[in-house]
Amino acid sequence: MGVPAFFRWLSRKYPSIIVSCTEEKAKECNGIKIPVDTSKPNPNEVEFDNLYLDMNGIIHPCTHPEDKPAPKNEDEMMVAIFEYIDRLFNIVRPRRLLYMAIDGVAPRAKMNQQRSRRFRASKEGMEGAEEKQRIRQEIMEKGGFLPPEEIKERFDSNCITPGTEFMDNLAKCLRYYIADRLNNDPGWKNLTVILSDASAPGEGEHKIMDYIRRQRAQPNHDPNTHHCLCGADADLIMLGLATHEPNFTIIREEFKPNKPKPCGLCNQFGHETKDCQGLPKEKQGEHDQFADCPPGMEQEFIFIRLCVLKEYLERELTMASLPFTFDVERSIDDWVFMCFFVGNDFLPHLPSLEIREGAIDRLVNIYKNVVHKTGGYLTENGYVNLERVQMIMLAVGEVEDSIFKKRKDDEENFKRRQKEKRKRMKREQHTMLGGQYTPQPLGRGNRSSHQPISNPRHTAYEMRMQDRQNTTPSVSPNTSFTSDGTPSPAGGIKRKTEDSDSEPEPEDNVRLWEAGWKQRYYKNKFDVDINDKKFRRKVVQSYVEGLCWVLRYYYQGCASWKWYYPFHYAPFASDFEGIADMFSDFEKGTKPFRPLEQLMGVFPAASGNFLPLTWRKLMTDPDSSIIDFYPEDFAIDLNGKKYAWQGVALLPFVDERRLRAALAQVYPNLTSEENRRNSLGGDILFVGKHHQLHDFILEQYKSNEKEPVDIPPELCHGIQGKLTLNEYPILPDESVQSPVPLLRDLTQNSSISINFKDPQFQEDFIFKAVVLSGAK
């Protein structure tokens, strides 16, 4: 979820929600590794029923880790993913269900964010490779030392998108992995496993939520099911609260700020690639007594207990003398909704609401102050009462001016403190070094203590820094842009002479802290006059639609696969006038894109190698009717932020009708294999031979039953849904071939797989956002 620092804010405000995970480690005996018996009681003193894995949060760190060497090839990546899942399974030890959900084709509202991320990733990857090569050359020319350059193809993380061969192979590997564990791990003995791979449409976490909602609506659902969801995204906390399940825990890696990362050139720690000076001579060869690489620490995990968070929220949201009955569940739903204003994956956050400035606390206080006017809750079962939301927004709008001024004051105070700190450190450094001599590492031997600085690495570094100061910066991540996307004067950098050692300061053309901020904002960001009320209302209308879409997405599922917010920026809170009658409803019966169609919607031309050749040409051919969708370069508006990753990528929005018209010309060129990867799939259910459902499924294959059959809930821990025969099933007494050469084939398989579909409901069915009867 696009809420920077949300988890940090939440964990500081409500510290008791976090508990460290106890992890039992495998033992070694005579050099033989003895795996942990996960069928034994959970060492965390809680027994979980269901474990849900938001797989993309596992795939990314396993394929391109930031804090350790990356896997050498795709096979090693798959093994790393298997080992990561094993660790999570060992900690959580689910007894009923393991649900593995990979991101499939996303709603259009999400595709815009995916497009921005993938264009950025491609641009930053190429720029990073060029910068590394340039610095390497400078260091070597000055006589510095660096490890030999590895000749290997750069892993393009954009391949972690539905429709690519990588994701297709991952699905095959996970099917093998599940079969292997069902056959060989005692902890998996009675487990039901559901795999929703990238061919099944929907974001991973939302496929999980859809499953939970639909099971909750069944008469056989156990209201005291213990759920555990794995993922690092902040929106998982909101989604967990939105289920209203009393026993919901999130497991994620423990966040450790300022975690050291190795330099991309010399592999040493303590500096970034841009500041690399090469390896010192002492670090050459086998006698590397001065190596400063910290040992690789295995990442630890934490539990986030949503039941404790709900207690905190109940205490904070409880209000006396209300004109209506207080309902903690409804008030928590309103809290989830208010968090959307601070940021989410589908809408830009309101300019006046920043998480670091206490925006959520501000919203809660306003919410409690105006509740007597609203006369009720803001939301119900995922539907928004816009008349009441308008009161909240206009109350925020009344203090927008003071918020912007305070933000500027805080920034100036911070800069002043940082400047004083730098001066103090310089004085201390000058005193310590005497301004003449280099410090000597301990154990260096009997070298002269007065050795002058004459290191070619330092020379190269100093020349590079001098070049940067003497050269006018070109368009870069730290460049600000005008409303038409061109670089602002002087590269958008203002720098005072006396503060030349500080970070470049991006120019801010809007100046929200000065009078006339609203006029400048609309002129700079939308290129319209403030008096164009029709346009401003159109922006607010789209944002209101977005709020309704997002809340519905969290509580009921995807209301429209086609809707998206068509602007790069949000309106102001003070613009939310007359919104009560703005929204009607979303178009019914919309369908998701197909996987290869989504790739065309989110990929830059640099990642076109993942697409069929004739499709790829549409991205690069100057005569292509959609060439404008794939700019080679694009502006990044810092929008008041400091770093490029915080800015807004000013990419053109994809016109769906134009895209489909262009693709209609190349669809006939797809091979049968490409057509298979371009088709939408579904979920697969797996069980082992000891599971009560095993023989029931086997009987379906023996009878060659073509029609969907209901799962007998008494055979599957109350899980309900439809089963249909799989075209390429895993069957007992048939070997399962390993897609990873490093791993063995399963020659004595006893597990079985079959297609699974969640219980279906009428399109207008409303899932109730309540605690179920019988819940403890």
From TrEMBL:
Subcellular location(s) per record: Nucleus
Keyword ATP-binding: no
Biased composition (Basic residues): 416-427
Root EC class: hydrolase
Biased composition (Basic and acidic residues): 121-132
Keywords attached to this entry: Exonuclease, Hydrolase, Metal-binding, mRNA processing, Nuclease, Nucleus, Transcription, Transcription regulation, Transcription termination, Zinc, Zinc-finger
GO CC terms in record: nucleus
InterPro entries: 5_3_exoribonuclease (IPR027073), Xrn1_helical (IPR041412), Xrn1_N (IPR004859), Xrn2/3/4 (IPR017151)
PANTHER family for this protein: 5'-3' EXORIBONUCLEASE 2, 5'->3' EXORIBONUCLEASE
Function: Possesses 5'->3' exoribonuclease activity. May promote termination of transcription by RNA polymerase II.
Family of the protein in this entry: Belongs to the 5'-3' exonuclease family. XRN2/RAT1 subfamily.
The protein, known as: 5'-3' exoribonuclease
Taxonomic path: Eukaryota, Metazoa, Chordata, Craniata, Vertebrata
Gene: XRN2
